[in-house]
Automatic annotation (TrEMBL):
Pfam families: ABC_tran (PF00005). NCBIfam families: 3a0107s01c2. This is ABC-type phosphate transport system ATPase component. GO terms for molecular function: ATP binding; ATP hydrolysis activity; phosphate transmembrane transporter activity. GO terms for cellular component: membrane. One of its GO terms (biological process) is phosphate ion transmembrane transport. It comes from Methanohalarchaeum thermophilum.
Amino acid sequence: MNDIELNIEGNNETAERKRNEEVKDEWINYDVDGDPKISVSNLNVWYGEERAIKDISIDIPKKSVTAIIGPSGCGKSTFLRCINRMNDRIRNAKIDGSIRFDGTEIYQNNLNLVELRRKVGMVFQNPNPFPKSIRDNVLYAPRKHGYIEKNFLEKILGRTKQKEKNILEKSLKQAALWDEVKNRLDDNALGLSGGQQQRLCIARCLAVDPEVILMDEPASSLDPIATSKIEDLIVSLSNNYTVIVVTHNMQQAARISDQTAVFLTGGELVEYDETTKIFENPESKRVEDYITGRFG
Ligand SMILES: Nc1ncnc2c1ncn2[C@@H]1O[C@H](COP(=O)(O)OP(=O)(O)O)[C@@H](O)[C@H]1O
Ligand SMILES: [Mg+2]
């Protein structure tokens, strides 16, 4: 390149942009070990005329924590809701592209949505336990979906109760809540602290044996101690489950996740890589600016 060209700012910017575009595919084609649990290809989502997700492709590995970070309004929640087809319920949402779960397309007609949402559980920002007992919260979905047999003989022999007890204890233990509530299982869940309520919501999700757990800013309404418990829990859950967690807290993403996807304004996936790489040495200038707090 000759000197004159280099000195012209406009051309410089163009060259920079071109270089960025050329390497961009590499930043988001992070190769996961083994078959991905979830494979998203060319996902686009619109609300009416407005596009919230722009052509996102990403593979999510099993049994690990994937963090989704990015500024408010960049499509993180929308993306999460695509994975268990919750956006289907939003009337003006239009979704285009493919999401495969263990290789099976979830955007196909006749997919069993109840089964999908059992396998892909979701935990929201504000804990939302039912105004029922702790026990009834955890057992709500197993009872509803026929996990607990109700035939006459089992009822007489007391097996239904035993089965309920097992699911209740196992789920609460997995959610690191058992010790705190084992003596008050029939108390109303709304009497629990915020952090306990959130762990109860996680237990409720675990009670139907999910494979993937989607968490949308699960600790952002909690105090630091409750947050730290949820963070520890997320890490331990990833031994058995595929966890995808949206957070706008970058330190949290850095602490708990194995890989991080950075979404930026416009619903773009700008960079996806191992978490240490994203935080220590991102490829994209925009990601670096976002992480160092210069933007977003
Ligand atoms: N139900 C909806 N109807 C219309 N627009 C929506 C709806 N949900 C989200 N949006 C818009 O889509 C964009 C992405 O939103 P969202 O996924 O909630 O972002 P984030 O979770 O990153 O803050 C925003 O511009 C938001 O206003
Ligand atoms: Mg959100």
